[in-house]
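Suppose a colleague, Dr. K., hands you the sequence of a protein chain of 110 amino acids and asks what its three-dimensional shape might be. Before reaching for any lab equipment, you can write down a predicted structure in token form. Begin with the sequence itself:
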Amino acid sequence: MSDGSLGSKDSTEPGELEALRSQIDDLDVQIVRLLNCRARLGLQAGRAKVRNGWPVADSEREREVLVRVATANDGPMPQDALLALYRQLIETIKQLEELEGIGSEGDTNG
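The predicted structure, expressed as tokens, is then:
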């Protein structure tokens, strides 16, 4: 029954799918840039904390970030999935801080 095509119902769907995929590809590039920007800012914040003699780890700030993200979510991304992504982002920035030696006691936070 299938001819190996996209299973289109009319002749416009393959073009529409191509356009949607192009938009997704463009967004992926933007998301990668934004994630790297977010990581750089997290590293800078960690360095600023060290310079000021403040603890690098800040669980209250992490909670604030997660609440802000949850509040900003208007779907369709499920809340638990979005928060899992942000928790992973925070953990990744902590690992980057450790690699850079930010928080000499190994106590880091992005």
